[in-house]
Amino acid sequence: MSFQSLGLRAELVVAVTKKGYNTPTPIQKQAIPIILEGRDLMGGAQTGTGKTAGFTLPLLQRLMATEHQGKGRRPVRALVLTPTRELAAQVAESVRDYGQNLPLRSTAIFGGVSINPQKQKLIKGIDILVATPGRLLDHVGQRSVDLSKVDILVLDEADRMLDMGFIHDIRKVIGLLPKNKQTLLFSATFSDEIKKLSNGLLKSPALIEVARKNTTADSVTQIVHPVDKNLKRKLLSYLIGSNNWKQVLVFARTKHGSDRLAKQLITDGIKASAIHGNKSQGARTRALADFKAGKVRVLVATDIAARGLDIDQLPHVVNFDLPNIAEDYVHRIGRTGRAGNEGEAMSLVCVDELGLLKDIERLIKREIPKQEIDGFEVDPTIKPEPIKGRGRQQQGGGKRNGKKTGNKNKGKRKAPGKSPSSSPWNKRTSSNKRSNTQNRTRHR
Ligand code: AMP
User: Fold this and answer.
1) How far does the centroid of ligand 1 lie from the alpha carbon of residue 406, in Å?
2) 220 lines ligand 1 (CB under 6 A)
3) Which residue ranges make up each domain of the chain?
4) Mean pLDDT across the stretch 32-37?
5) 285 CA distance to ligand 1 centroid (A)?
6) Does the fold of domain 220-442 match that of domain 4-209?
7) Atom of ligand 1 lying closest to residue 312 CA
8) Is the CB of 307 under 6 A from ligand 1?
9) By C-alpha distance, which of 317, 342, 341 is closest to 331?
10) Which atom of ligand 1 is nearest to the CA of 90?
């Protein structure tokens, strides 16, 4: 099936061909005809499925069909709400790319940068506005945007917007839009809150779901490396160095923890930078650009900052800390293995995180293979501690509970079965049996 056969106009087909897309992805095949018909849509699609083009291409086509004729400032006719600045910037870039042969204007507005240049753009007239909810409401408050002519509303990564506490802002924005409009809601998961939001908002929506709720992409190989907390950083440096990884996205739990980890990696001779909500938008954009350009080998990110990062062919994602919320694991590893490429997602898991690991495995309905790395074996005498305050204890290697945890012979795969049966690892996981496979198993 081609993009043309989906009923897209030539300008759009030329633009996607220029991007190198020949075949529509499953979500595009399903969503594009529905959106072109003008129907509301509820799309269950995890990131990396091509959902952005799935809604952007038909949205552009529909706007062309009702091109603004009148005099005066062009009204905003399509509004895309996203949870993060990065995703807003990314979606706006896609709108620009796909709409490059059409006379439509678009821009992104988000917080963390000066509001005035955004006002200047809005004054000139914008057809498609991509926005984070908070900054959009700032503009509404300052009367720099009028939303009364919006024909199409897109809620992108709606589950994440709700997780981030945007529900009131979203409801306020919806209250400013015309009742009669087309609404498209995309979400990786369909929680009760999402259903509640969609009930009042969507009119007989078409439901499409391309990846089952909370499934991980088949193209991503997943593995857990059991390791003591105080050896995580050394293991990370070792894995990057010995495998000669060139581009690794590393997830850390806290802003402070990501800064510290980036600094420690630099001390280990690995070029790294951190990206999180405390950094200025300029610093975040720069860090991402350097990472994409290969100037920086490791980007350490928190969950929120990483939303919407779209890096072509990102081969490795590392969970330095497991996320508190199991769904975030799915989002994190969705950064790799995108658009048909293969990816590898590693989790460095210490004994404190076994409960989180179980939650993740329950959610994704599969056990993740465990593999210890020689020299980084877990010390079976270490007892789990509460996760709280964990970030402060992640520096360097050395002693823990009075026992030296060395890393001689590091790098070899560990033979299984050395931990005493009292080890929490033995009680809660089948780590030893799994590590015996000596292989990184791909689960389908
Ligand atoms: P998304 O899920 O929208 O974040 O898209 C994931 C990635 O897939 C992006 O890098 C897109 O550029 C890419 N992509 C989108 N549609 C296609 C397609 N039909 N063929 C190949 N790559 C695509």
Assistant:
1) 44
2) no
3) 4-209, 220-442
4) 96
5) 21
6) yes
7) 10
8) no
9) 317
10) 4
pLDDT tens per residue, range 424-435: 776 554 444 333
Q: What is the pTM of this model?
A: 0.61
Atom of ligand 1 nearest to the CA of 47: 2
* Ligand 1 site, residue 52, Cβ cutoff 6 A: yes
Residue 113 near ligand 1, beta carbon < 6 Å: no
**What dihedral do alpha carbons 436, 387, 275, 162 form, nearest 10°?**
110
More confident residue, 351 or 420: 351
Cα–Cα distance, 260 to 253 (Å, whole number): 11
The alpha carbon of 50 and the centre of ligand 1 are apart by a number of angstroms equal to 4
One CATH from 3.40.47.40, 3.40.50.300, 3.10.20.90, 3.30.360.10 for 4-209: 3.40.50.300
220-442: CATH topology? Rossmann fold (3.40.50)
Question: Does the CB atom of residue 337 touch ligand 1 within 6 A?
Answer: no
**Ligand 1 in contact with 214 (CB < 6 A)?**
no
The Å distance, Cα 94 to ligand 1 centre, comes to 10
> Does the beta carbon of 50 lie inside 6 Å of ligand 1?
yes
The C-alpha atoms of residue 252 and residue 78 are separated, in whole angstroms, by: 35
